[in-house]
Amino acid sequence: MTTMTDTSNAARFREFKMPDVGEGLTEAEILKWFVQPGDTVTDGQVVCEVETAKAAVELPIPFDGVVHELRFPEGTTVDVGQVIIAVDVAPGSGDAPAAAEPEPAPAAEPVAEAEPEAPKGRQPVLVGYGVAESSTKRRARKGTEAAPAAASAAIQGEMNGHGTGHAAVAESRPLAKPPVRKLAKDLGIDLATVTPTGEGGVITREDVHAAATPAPAPAPVQAEAPAPVVAPAPSVTARETRIPVKGVRKAIAQAMVGSAFTAPHVTEFVTVDVTRTMKLVAELKEDKDMAGVRVNPLLIIAKALLVAIKRNPEVNAAWDEANQEIVQKHYVNLGIAAATPRGLIVPNIKDAHDQTLPQLAASLGELVSTAREGKTSPAAMAGGTVTITNVGVFGVDTGTPILNPGESAILAVGAIKLQPWVHKGKVKPRQVTTLALSFDHRLVDGELGSKVLADVAAILEQPKRLITWA
Description:
By secondary structure, the chain is α+β, with helices and mostly antiparallel strands. It is about 25% helix and about 25% strand. It is built from 12 helices and 24 strands. It has helices at about 5-10, 150-160, 165-170, 180-185, 205-210, 245-260, 275-285, 295-310, 355-370, 380, 445-460, 465-470, and strands at about 15, 25-35, 40, 45-50, 55-60, 65-70, 75-80, 85-90, 175, 200-205, 230, 235, 240, 265-275, 315-320, 325-330, 335, 340, 345, 350, 385-390, 410-415, 415-425, 425-440. The strands form 7 sheets. Strands 14, 17, 20, 21, 22, 23 and 24 form a 7-stranded mixed β-sheet that branches. Strands 5-4-2-7-11 form a 5-stranded antiparallel β-sheet, with no helix packed on it. A hairpin with a 4-residue loop joins strand 15 and strand 16. Mean pLDDT is about 75; it is low at about 1-5, about 100-170 and about 215-225.
């Protein structure tokens, strides 16, 4: 591989490193490249798809240019901070150095300006929950040192939706156009730390990129990159196939083992006549207010669980081992277990307790379609409080579900079948299903768990209780 020594030529090339695309993750596997050397790319264009221990994520590149080199082939696991692609940002300005073939071998050399060694700690993320502590400090915005209280008020005001009419907020709130704010959010950059160069103190796209890119060294230097971990292929013989466990499946396995052997699980069951619920589903499908959204039994079950939680709020909690506390949540992020080609994932509907039935139907539809497409982000799977797993779609009567880590309860819904049932003193064919509720016995005792399960069953038997109990 050629190492550049001409600093003017070096300025033509910029490197894009594997970002931390989740909550402190250390590596990601390159699933697919969407560009090849010689392709033109623009700021914000998705160049590849990677898989972490949490989800598959598409990575946008933060600058314009022509692809010069792809550092790693598809199927390679790359550490966070390693350069994965080099881009010529000034094509046609001179002869470019010869590009080397992608090397899954040690000692890959940079083709762009050298950058300081990656600091310890979390770095800005493209997708996830923000920036954790790092030893690197960004350039402070002019005036923020003199007004920390005003800056805090500005941030709080922005979170509360206040406009610039509030003097304290307007004085210190960073000035930037919506596209620039979105770019900063995608790159994990706090606009309050960016030095504006635009007229009137407005932050530009270039300012955001400058804050996201460390200053180049005077000349490129030899850098030794850690050897990439090449994903092993399945081992197939005449009698068995061995499939390496990695990515989402590996994370699921570790989480389930941790949950099963940390939280004391209790599971209760109830069989219920849901004939009236099925009639309600049929009626809602014809309702004009539900046009454009998918209506199915899961929608009514989800709403029933939300009502049961409202009637028994203590069940919506988490166990804080470090502080030996029960943390009761005043919101419900409703998880829906979804089977995907990459394994079982549990995205959740944020603040589901505040949603109307049509809104909940739309959220469920979007959640399921996104999961099936493999586009669920790590943020969509974080912060769940209670989960539903619908094993009935596989024709299974019910099961004993394992809690999603950090949650207090999970409801398993079995197949809805036509069965003989005693109704009004006579045996009649009725639509029947079995529900199973697993809960953490450290914070949910038998009485509370039984009340929640009984409330869900009562609503599904008499769905009018969605109105009388809401």
